[in-house]
Amino acid sequence: MIPLKLEEDIKFIEKSALILTRVLSVVRNKAVAGISMLELDSIAEQMIIKEAALPAFKGYRGYPATICASLNEEIVHGIPDERVAKDGDILSIDIGVNYSGYFADAAITVAIGKITPKAKKLIDITKQALAKGVQKASPGNHLGDISYTIQNFVEQHGFSVVREFVGHGIGKNLHEEPEIPNFGRSGTGPVLKAGMVLAIEPMVNVGIWQSKLKANGWTAVTADGELSAHFEHTVLITEKGPRILTNG
Ligand code: MF3
Ligand code: CO
Predict the structure, then answer these.
(1) How far is residue 40's CA from residue 82's CA, in Å, rounded to a whole number?
(2) What residues pair up with 103 in beta bridges, in sequence order?
(3) How many whole angstroms separate alpha carbon 4 and alpha carbon 10?
(4) Cα dihedral angle (58, 63, 67, 68), rounded to 10 degrees?
């Protein structure tokens, strides 16, 4: 069962998403050469707590931090550590907020200083893939329309979509039904309805789609060591179409 949110639920999810949007924009501006992943984590955590909210990832299945900071070939779930961002890196920052028992989840990939044209294209295509997927989040469409649109767009541009990690419903839990793969077929899967809230999150690789897990048991990296990017929004489906909640 995909939960349909009531007006009062949506108010809280919106508040959670607003906090998250502010935090992500501050962290984005701090993400420059010389800053450590732990410093970014600490900035995010302090901001979230100041807003009377909680970091949604910390403690989730034992995850040890507030943000996921995934550098270069890391796809998702990079655990913040002493590593420092350096010129030419790409950094995916994924943050979840729990406000009053309601969750929001969003991610961006940013360039540190001057990056290669290929890295720039990867970031642009992943961001656009998310936008195209979001456009399909309308009542009457199928879930597979989102998945197909993302995969088709990414592959048209010569990149690949990660298969092992997927988007998800969100609301009173960080992860709810349905799973939202970034690959699939149009016209398949559940029919979308107003009141659903979806975390849509394409993860896109320059090379092959396969990933492997680092020794820390969390961090996924590309199997071929090539770059990966990640964008995510929390999106409410309304009668009029998609409304991105993590846009401010
Ligand atoms: N956006 C990611 C997801 O939905 C981040 C989760 S991090 C975790 O899976 F620590 F909470 F797992
Ligand atoms: Co997510």
Answers:
(1) 11
(2) 98
(3) 10
(4) -170
- Angle formed by the axes of helices 37-50 and 7-30, nearest 10°: 140
202 within 8 A of 26, measured Cβ to Cβ: no
The Cβ of residue 139 has, within 10 Å, a number of other Cβ atoms equal to 16
| Spatial distance between the Cα atoms of 159 and 125, rounded to a whole number of angstroms | 9
Whole-number pLDDT of residue 58: 98
Do β-strands 102-111 and 90-99 pair in parallel, antiparallel, or remain unpaired?
A: antiparallel
Residue indicated by tokens 């990414």: 154
The mean per-residue pLDDT over the stretch 71-92 comes to 98
Name the residue at shortest CA distance from atom 3 of ligand 1. Answer: 167
* Shortest-distance Cα residue to atom 10 of ligand 1: 57
b/e string for 198-216 if b means 16 or more Cβ within 10 A? bbbbbbbbbeebebeeeee
In whole angstroms, give the CA distance from residue 82 to residue 37.
6
CA distance 15 to 94: 18
Contacts of 46 (CB under 8 A, 6+ apart): none
Give mean pLDDT, residues 236-240. 98
- What is residue 229's predicted lDDT score, i.e. its pLDDT? 99
The best mutation among 16, 41, 54, 57 to test binding of ligand 1, ranked by most ligand atoms within 8 Å of the C-beta, falls on 57
Residues 107-151: tens digit of each pLDDT = 999 999 999 999 999 999 999 999 999 999 999 999 999 999 999
